[in-house]
Amino acid sequence: MLDPSLRQRLQQTKNITVFTGAGISAESGIPTFRERFTGLWANTDPQEVATPEAFRADPQRVWDWHVHLAGTVRRAAPNAGHRAIARLQEAVGRVTVITQNIDDLHHAAGSRDVLELHGNLFRLAPFVDEEALFAGERGPLICHLCGGYALRDDCDPYAGREDLACLRLEAGPVPRCPACGALLRPDIVWFGEPLDPHVLGAAFEAADACDALICVGSSLEVEPAASIPYRAIRRGAVVIEINPAPTSLTEHADAGIQGNASAVLPELFREVWG
């Protein structure tokens, strides 16, 4: 699969970054973003269900769309590609996993400390309505429980983490924070929202520090995530791309392997690390 000199370079690496995109999860049956607008949601504009403006206008409709998506995701299981990446963390000194996916399959496969660039569908966060934020006479109060801006003048001091943990992405009315009453939403990046600067910064640091970067199943069409493999290239790290079709990265990588992650990753890791 790899020429001997490249295989030897990989065997000598102590710090590897694995960067994954929608392709690896598609093999587990999770639809890509555009594929999600089928069936019940076939005539839905993404701007109507995946933006802060859409949630402000109709929070229940946005919540229902994400509940529908979560039903598909919950039925999916990690595939051999996810599991191979988790095993790699046991074989190499340091392995950082960066993903554009929101499905939690890397965690389910056993990977640790995953950097989720676009958030996690099954984690809830307070909705911050920037239009209404400073509409009142007083500045907003930050909730001690959810970290959002409270809708009330004070927060319930008796509401605890266990109350928040009971709330899930499931059918029903849009939940509110038990302490402050703020609407809760899936903790993912919608259209028009920036990535979490702390997560993005950690991803950039991982790309800058690694000896090798393995890019799996990403079309590399969305910035700033698309720039991550090129940071590793500029530092002289080994870069391997695994994708069914060529991308903009292919000609710059040390090796471009065409194929599905579930087939290629286990074979590649056996060849290099046994």
The gist of it:
This protein has 274 residues and is an alpha/beta fold.
Question: What would your notes on this structure say?
Answer:
The chain is an alpha/beta fold and 274 residues long. It has a domain at 4-38 and 78-121 and 193-273: TPP-binding domain (Rossmann fold), CATH 3.40.50.1220. Helices cover 34% and strands 15% of the residues. The strands form 2 sheets. Strands 3-2-1-6-7-8 form a 6-stranded parallel sheet, sandwiched between helices. It has a two-stranded antiparallel ribbon with strand order 4-5. The radius of gyration is 21 Å and the shape is elongated. It starts with a helix and ends with a helix. The model has no long low-confidence stretch (mean pLDDT 91).
Features of this protein?
34% helix, Rossmann fold, six-stranded parallel sheet, 274 residues, alpha/beta, two-stranded antiparallel sheet
State the distance separating the first and last CA atoms: 14 Å
> How many distinct helices?
11
Within the CATH hierarchy, at the fold level, what is the topology of the domain at 4-38 and 78-121 and 193-273?
Rossmann fold
The SSE string, one letter per element, is HEHHHHEHEEHHEHEHEEH
Overall average residue pLDDT:
91
List the helices and strands and how they pair.
Layout: H1 4-11, E1 15-20, H2 22-26, H3 52-57, H4 59-74, H5 80-91, E2 94-99, H6 105-109, E3 115-116, E4 119-126, H7 130-133, H8 161-165, E5 184-188, H9 197-209, E6 212-216, H10 228-234, E7 238-243, E8 255-258, H11 261-273
Parallel strand pairs: 1-2, 1-6, 2-3, 6-7, 7-8
Antiparallel strand pairs: 4-5
